[in-house]
Amino acid sequence: MASEISPLSRAEYTALAVRTFDTPEIIVTITRHRSHSRTSPHTHEGPYLCLVSAGDFDERGPHQNLSVCSGDVIAHPGCDIHANHFGSAAVECINFAPRPAGRLNALFSASIVKPDSWADAHILHRVRSELRTNDRWTPIALEVLAVEMLKGHARRSEASARPSQRCADLREFIERESPRVPTLSELASHAGLRPAHLSRVFRAAFGTSPVELGRQYRAAWARAQIESASMSLSRLAAEAGYADHPHMCRDLRRRYGVAPRELRDGAAA
Fold first, then answer.
1. pTM, whole model, 2 decimals?
2. DSSP assignment, residue 260?
3. Domains of the chain: residue spans and CATH
């Protein structure tokens, strides 16, 4: 497979363009592709953004399986391997690649770490407007629009990563607070998220709600105390934060299939 991959330098890709715009920071190329045509697996010299301005196509690679159409943007990291299969209509792509020696190259490289795509019909409208104007300001305006696309992509990536980290931090907080079970409002305030949103992202991350996780930790704490301590079950229920002794008995029986007294007798045997 490696022998079939064709590295494509910026100069080679620019030579394929039907139109090119240059600034000190970025090269903008417009490429067109026949309907039902294909490209073999290839890589590009560095990271770039591809704005699909007409048609649709599928892109396949080791790290992506994308189907895009007019108004979509694809973010490609440097040396990303992919092949394209163009649809029933001719395809036009507007590509934004930072110059290797420019300041934007580091931002592109840091912000685009894996292939991704998203819809942005508004940015396509603004790019088309600049291309129609086609005056001395057009290249720099295209550079500004490229930065806007990159900024939007980076912020979305950072925002999607934040809930995961917040959920991980919150799980540690819940464990530290055990056997106390924090309320959903308290947890949402601690995480800086709305309660409903917190419940959704936490369940997606760990398969359970944050409050239920707190109850699991409480039950585990109570079981460990029952099996290792001589504290009365009524006092232990109060220490664990249960409403009363029967409440603890029901919870432990539901979770472990045995009553607290049986747990203590089994530990003493």
1. 0.62
2. H
3. 2-156 (2.60.120.10), 178-269 (1.10.10.60)
